[in-house]
Specification:
The chain has about 140 residues and is mainly alpha-helical. The chain contains six helices and two strands, in the order ααααααββ. Helix 1 packs antiparallel against helix 4 and helix 2 crosses helix 3. The two termini are about 15 Å apart. The C terminus is likely disordered.
Length: about 140
């Protein structure tokens, strides 16, 4: 099932690049990021209430909250760079190669050990003869 979510993520990421490039033709990339963030915020909280997860807010520990806030800051910085890159460059040249770098960087940085994940090969062969991906252990 996780493979379907992975393909869905790739599909929507591709749509993000195309739609963002079209939507930024006559606007500033920072303004575009702010508008996108408002939409993502409304969508995310809508999903929390739709699935009934709002009660879990009280159960979030301080440490978990800290890492979620840090992740949010990293996401914001990533989005600002992403939108600026889209605004000044070609989406396909930028998105398809550069945006996948975090996957390759996670294992060498020791992040896999810290978040208790291990690297395993996908159950399929790709153009490169296979690829490593992170999975829960």
């Amino acid at each position: 099932m996780w493979v379907l979510y992975g393909f869905g993520s790739a599909l929507f990421a591709g749509l993000t690049a195309i739609l963002a490039k079209c939507g930024m033709r006559m606007s500033d990339s920072t303004v575009a990021t702010a508008i996108r963030t408002i939409v993502v915020l409304a969508f995310s909280w809508g999903m929390v209430f739709l699935v009934g997860s709002e009660a879990q807010l009280a159960e979030i520990s301080g440490r978990t909250l800290l890492f979620l806030v840090l992740s949010g800051l990293a996401t914001g910085a990533s989005w600002l760079c992403y939108f600026r890159g889209l605004q000044i460059g070609e989406p396909n040249a930028y998105k398809t190669h550069i945006d996948s770098i975090p996957i390759q960087c996670k294992a060498p940085t020791g992040a896999t050990a810290y978040i208790r994940e291990r690297i395993t090969p996908l159950p399929c062969r790709m153009r490169t003869g296979g690829c490593p991906c992170a999975s829960k252990s």
